[in-house]
């Protein structure tokens, strides 16, 4: 298949990486096709202030589209977890006194379902389940991301940056490689996605 | 072992910066790995001491469990002796982690980055102690699960959710889970950093813990989202947990307990002792692992200011408590307070006032805030004072009840001292020492965020290359023989030199 080629380019400096991303965007690569690797979260607003980067407004916008792709959010899972948590507390605090073996009329004039404890416990269980759901959501969303490309370099957790492009035709591959070379890439690897033994590039570490 | 390259200014007390922004990024990885690989007699000696104390205390606990609660000094009046003060103390200590990591995260305080991981670990281990003390204080710890909402338990009974004691259990479970997840989430990229450069059995642990992290833009996006969300949720949770603990007392009619200010009083006291706890932990760790590049004198200056502020809040609440004892015009309330101020508990009360209320005023002086031995000693004294504070909240009120014929004094036995003071302390020490070998104590990515980002110099000539950042790294770094971290950097430097020679 012609469409299963990938390329992975490593950069030493962040301004080279940014310029490569902008050039790829100018060359018509879609934001969802560009995968950026770094050892810190890259914030466009922060980077824009450095004199070495010196981004224009439209460039900053284009870069931001790549680094903060629109789409699913962890908050969705958090909200679901919070709703489950509140429901759980309401059911628990509501059902326990109703199913108590003694008759409700023998509860000494107090309300059968007490609302102050229900409020407190709803808050606690809401937070508890929302925590768990957020972490599960995070794990799920990043898992989907990992399935897409298998490539990795151990220097990325030290001080290097990288760009990965997948599903490229030979022409697009050539175009991308040229852009990387123009922007002083440190290392380029071209490979087939299902080629074995290509998931780890930096063997010396 | 890598050589330490800390470069402190001549008088570090005058340096206000929280980190040297020019530290190369690889140095951060290297120093984190160095902490994992440093094995000193101080480390193993400390670990052996804590483990020994845990074993001795556990044996005493077993003795108490088999022979009965009669071995404790508790009596009909003072039914909570050292157990509940210890419970409150450890919950209080746990609050610093959330404060330093979540509250200061939203306040965009960069100085928190080097020390918040210690605070979060302190939170987690403190909460494990809280669970242990809760279980032990039941008297029959094997029936701990009676407090849990477990259906079909054969008793046809559920916990009473009208009781603050049931709220406590759920709140502390939530807080412990949340703190553990918050801590773990922040460590995922750091586990990946260690996974890539540390071998041996720990590599397998880091592989699992890093969840296959690669550092892609989407992973960072989701991490930042999840971290911000959990951080936003854990702040009100922190306040609610200690408020619920306070309501355990407020909902009773015991003199000295029935006080509406207890919730904020407890939260403020918790933050106060928590900050002192962080200082107690960080000063020895900084010295043991030579982390002067990351934990600077200015960190203690800022922690000292924070502690001073909290000392004022604490003094305010203490004053309100004293004033309230008179203002209520309830003789039993007055007796309970006078028992502390001029009665049998007076030496403890005035010691507490001296170390938690008067002594911290010395923190107005920058010389005091930047003197680490003084800060360490002061923090230890403050935490001793805060333990006494919790003791004085609980015990005098119980010993002077509304029925004068039941008034009784309380003296803890050796069993109580070991079970409720030495066991939690030594368990905390053991867990913390063990964590130094498998947990990234420095947040790699958060520290790198405030360092200079690697940028290509505006004009690069062959002459400029040797002065590049990579070359500086090579000059400073002694490659760790076990991890062999930076060999790739060396290759790149060699290549560039060759290119430079060819061009030149």
What does this entry look like structurally?
The complex is a heterodimer of chains A (205) and B (504). Chain A has helices at 14-26, 44-48, 57-67, 74-98, 115-148, 170-182, and strands at residues 5-11, 34-37, 161-168, 187-192. Chain A has 205 residues and is an alpha+beta fold. Chain A folds into two domains: 5-71 and 151-192, Alpha-Beta Plaits; 74-144, no CATH class. In chain A, strands 2-3-1-4 form a four-stranded antiparallel sheet, with helices on one face. In chain A, helix 1 crosses helix 3 (57-67) and helix 4 packs antiparallel against helix 5 (115-148). Chain A is elongated. Chain A starts with a strand and ends in a 13-residue tail after the last strand. The model of chain A has no long low-confidence stretch (mean pLDDT 80). With 504 residues, chain B is mainly alpha-helical. Chain B is built from 17 helices and no strands. Chain B has helices spanning 25-37, 41-67, 83-106, 116-137, 164-197, 201-209, 217-250, 262-288, 297-327, 331-341, 346-358, 366-369, 372-399, 414-435, 444-449, 469-476, 487-503. In chain B, helix 5 (164-197) packs across helix 6. The longest helix of chain B has 34 residues, at 164-197. Chain B is globular and about 95 Å long. The model of chain B is unreliable at 1-7 and 461-487 (pLDDT under 50). The interface between A and B is large, with 69 and 70 residues.
């Amino acid at each position: 298949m012609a469409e299963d080629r990938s390329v992975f380019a490593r950069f030493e400096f962040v301004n080279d990486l940014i310029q490569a991303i902008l050039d790829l965007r100018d060359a018509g690569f879609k934001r969802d096709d560009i995968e950026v690797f770094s050892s810190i979260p890259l914030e466009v607003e922060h980077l824009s202030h450095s004199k070495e980067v010196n981004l224009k407004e439209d460039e900053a916008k284009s870069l931001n589209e790549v680094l903060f792709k629109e789409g699913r959010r962890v908050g969705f899972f958090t909200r679901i977890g919070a709703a489950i948590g509140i429901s759980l507390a309401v059911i628990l605090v509501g059902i326990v006194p109703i199913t108590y073996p003694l008759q409700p009329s023998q509860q000494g004039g107090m309300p059968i379902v007490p609302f102050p404890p229900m409020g407190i416990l709803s808050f606690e269980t809401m937070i508890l389940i929302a925590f768990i759901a957020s972490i599960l959501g995070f794990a799920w969303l990043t898992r989907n991301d990992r399935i897409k490309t298998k490539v990795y370099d151990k220097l990325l957790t030290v001080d290097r940056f990288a760009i990965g492009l997948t599903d490229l035709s030979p022409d697009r591959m050539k175009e991308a490689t040229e852009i990387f070379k123009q922007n002083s890439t440190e290392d380029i690897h071209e490979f087939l996605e299902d080629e074995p033994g290509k998931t780890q590039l930096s063997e010396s570490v | 072992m890598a050589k330490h390259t800390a470069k402190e200014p001549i008088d570090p007390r005058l340096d206000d910066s929280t980190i040297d922004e020019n530290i190369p990024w690889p140095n951060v990885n290297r120093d984190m790995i160095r902490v994992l690989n440093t094995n000193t007699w101080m480390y193993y000696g400390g670990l052996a001491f804590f483990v020994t104390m845990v074993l001795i205390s556990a044996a005493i606990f077993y003795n108490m469990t088999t022979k009965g609660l009669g071995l404790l000094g508790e009596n009909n009046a003072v039914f909570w002796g050292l157990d509940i003060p210890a419970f409150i103390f450890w919950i209080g200590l746990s609050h610093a982690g959330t404060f330093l990591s979540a509250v200061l995260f939203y306040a965009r305080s960069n100085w928190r980055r080097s020390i918040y991981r210690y605070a979060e670990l302190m939170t987690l281990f403190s909460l494990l102690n809280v669970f242990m003390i809760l279980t032990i204080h039941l008297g029959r710890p094997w029936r701990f699960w009676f407090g849990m909402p477990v259906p079909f338990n054969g008793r046809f009974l559920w916990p009473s959710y009208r009781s603050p004691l049931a709220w406590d259990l759920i709140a502390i479970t939530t807080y412990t889970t949340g703190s553990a997840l918050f801590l773990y989430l922040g460590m995922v990229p750091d586990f990946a950093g260690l996974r890539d450069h540390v071998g041996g059995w720990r590599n397998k642990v880091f592989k699992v813990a890093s969840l296959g992290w690669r550092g892609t833009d989407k992973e960072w996006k989701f991490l930042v989202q999840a971290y911000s969300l959990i951080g936003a949720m854990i702040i009100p949770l922190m306040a609610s947990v200690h408020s619920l603990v306070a309501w355990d007392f407020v909902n009773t009619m015991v003199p000295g307990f029935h006080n509406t200010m207890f919730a904020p009083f407890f939260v403020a006291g918790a933050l106060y002792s928590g900050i002192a706890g962080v200082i107690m932990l960080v000063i020895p760790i900084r010295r043991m692992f030579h982390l002067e590049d990351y934990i600077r004198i200015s960190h203690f200056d800022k922690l000292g200011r924070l502690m001073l502020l909290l000392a004022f809040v604490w003094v305010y609440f203490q004053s309100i408590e004293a004033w309230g004892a008179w203002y209520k015009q309830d003789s039993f309330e007055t007796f309970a307070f006078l028992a502390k101020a001029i009665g049998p508990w007076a030496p403890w009360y005035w010691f507490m006032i001296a170390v938690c209320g008067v002594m911290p005023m010395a923190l107005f002086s920058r010389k005091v805030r930047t003197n680490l031995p003084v800060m360490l000693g002061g923090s230890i004294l403050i935490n001793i004072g805060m333990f006494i504070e919790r003791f004085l909240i609980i015990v005098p009120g119980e010993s002077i009840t509304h029925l004068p014929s039941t008034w009784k004094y309380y003296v803890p036995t050796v069993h109580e001292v070991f079970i409720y003071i030495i066991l939690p302390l030594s368990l905390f020490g053991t867990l913390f020492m063990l964590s130094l070998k498998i947990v990234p104590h420095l947040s790699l990515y958060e520290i790198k965020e405030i360092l200079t980002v690697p940028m290509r110099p505006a004009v690069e000539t062959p002459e400029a290359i040797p002065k590049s950042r990579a070359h500086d790294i090579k000059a400073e770094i002694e490659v760790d023989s076990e991890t062999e971290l930076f060999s790739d950097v060396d290759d790149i430097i060699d290549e560039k030199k060759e290119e430079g020679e060819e061009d030149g």
